[in-house]
Amino acid sequence: MEARIETIKQQLQSQGYKLTPQREATVRVLLENEEDHLSAEDVFMLVKDKAPEIGLATVYRTLELLSEMHVVEKLNFGDGVARYDLRADNSKHHHHHLICVQCGSMEEIKEDWLLPLEERLEREYGFAVADHRLDFQGVCRRCQEKNDQPNE
């Protein structure tokens, strides 16, 4: 975790920002809950446990700054809530998601299946893709199994 914090600190410094204690507390919460796709309010509640003096506005500003710098991705899964997801250090692109429209569960696809499409876009249209995000909405396996069970 310390290596990732140092990397984020360097990213901030390269853009003229400092890793303040408030920003560091926010980053630590994101790292500790990397699989959870937290909302700003979720991050705030977890940060408050570590640093009670931090306000919601500070957490919002930190998340927006990290989003602008592509340290985190700001995601919207159609439920009207912005969620934040750390980008992997070694990833050129963001990962993809499978979102269940029944239970709201989310599964990540870490593989980048769109590289052949990006290469084709470059070749055929002269379009250099900087980034992409792909979210699939449907019904997860658990909900399908529940739906297939006869009502008792």
TrEMBL record:
UniProt-listed GO biological process terms: negative regulation of DNA-templated transcription; regulation of secondary metabolite biosynthetic process
UniProt cross-references to InterPro entries, sorted A to Z: FUR (IPR002481), Fur_C (IPR043135), WH-like_DNA-bd_sf (IPR036388), WH_DNA-bd_sf (IPR036390)
Molecular function GO terms recorded: DNA-binding transcription factor activity; transcription cis-regulatory region binding; zinc ion binding
Keyword tRNA processing assigned: no
Cofactor info, note text: Binds 1 Mn(2+) or Fe(2+) ion per subunit.
Binding site for Fe cation: 94, 132
Matches recorded under CDD domains: Fur_like
Keywords of the record: DNA-binding, Iron, Metal-binding, Repressor, Transcription, Transcription regulation, Zinc
Needed co-factor(s): Mn(2+); Fe(2+); Zn(2+)
SUPFAM superfamilies: Winged helix' DNA-binding domain
Binding, Zn(2+): 100, 103, 140, 143
Family: Belongs to the Fur family.
Protein name: Transcriptional repressor
